Amino acid sequence: MLMNTYLKPQIVFEKGDGCYVISKSGEKYLDFSSGIGVNCLGYSHPAILEAMVEGSSLMHLSNLYDTEQDRILADKLVKRTGLDSVFFANSGAEANEGAIKLARKYSFDHYGSGRDEIITLKNSFHGRTITTLSATGQDKFHKFYMPFTAGFSYAEPNHLADLLSLVTEKTCAILIELVQGEGGVFPLEKDYVTQLFNLCQERDILFIVDEVQTGIGRCGQFFVSEEYNVLPDIVTFAKGLGGGMPIGAIVAGKKCKDTFGLSDHGSTFGGNPLACRISNAVVDKLNRDFLISVRENGHYLKESIARLNNKYIKEVRGLGLMLGMELTGVSASDVRNMCLEKQLLILTAGNNTIRLLPPLIVNKSQIDQCINILNEVLLSI
Questions:
Q1: Which end of the chain is more exposed for a tag (fewer CB within 10 A), N or C?
Q2: Burial 114-124 (b: 16+ CB within 10 A, else e)
């Protein structure tokens, strides 16, 4: 029996095709959750299926040895991000955990012990390990599992003075999401991000961007830092990077590209050759024209929601195909459940926000289908 950690509906899904998943009983559901942002190319994409078949003879090899696929993928990520070195992990939480270790070791190497504190933002989410829960700036996650990892403080988003009040001689890094996903899909203000970046540059504080949900084309750029015109010292990726396969990555810039030495960090499944082969297929699809289509379809989805002009819709926010629809006077989970009855899969972010993360291959007809169902549900309440 599975542990009771998820409240699951009584539906068993058997297969997927494009932006749809199909239940065991044959019902077809439009998926605007894409596995919580993972299935960026949808289901049964030819490039992913081909990579799966080609890689099936070498599904795993210890990372004590090298494979062609991890080197190819690392090279692509370095070129696409403008950074310098890569460590492969299994998930976003593991990538963020590794980024925290990397920042603390960089500071230890350059400043000695005691400079190990990291500032994150309130309303953030960075993972479910003990340390990434501690890094997460939401009180609801800081229960039950005490003691949590020490060394984190939380600043108000878009409030530079509040963050500056937390900076001390012990601060080694600032870790942020440029669009806070689990916290309600809140993009940070560009001026604020620029000021944070400049602060980090001036004081040799590492600037870490968690792109687990925003990266790999989700917000209309390969990584959303491009939209903010900043180059982080460390970026973390996962979710869409594998197109459905578990994979995460830490990408480091010049400052800390060589900070990890032999045996300083590791991951049994990191750099898994099958996952890397599939990830290579995903990254190859994210060319200029593809990313333009993500931005165009994201704008179309955002405008379509705004045109509903429904009394329950308070605000629509986000970038690309990562959108939050804040509701008032109605529960987001109730709306999600009613959409499920009409064969539309959506997500929530907090108590009052619907989160939409469709596959990046979504088209306008499928967006219209989603909008029609949302409209029907909201009008029926």
A1: N
A2: ebbbbbbbbbb
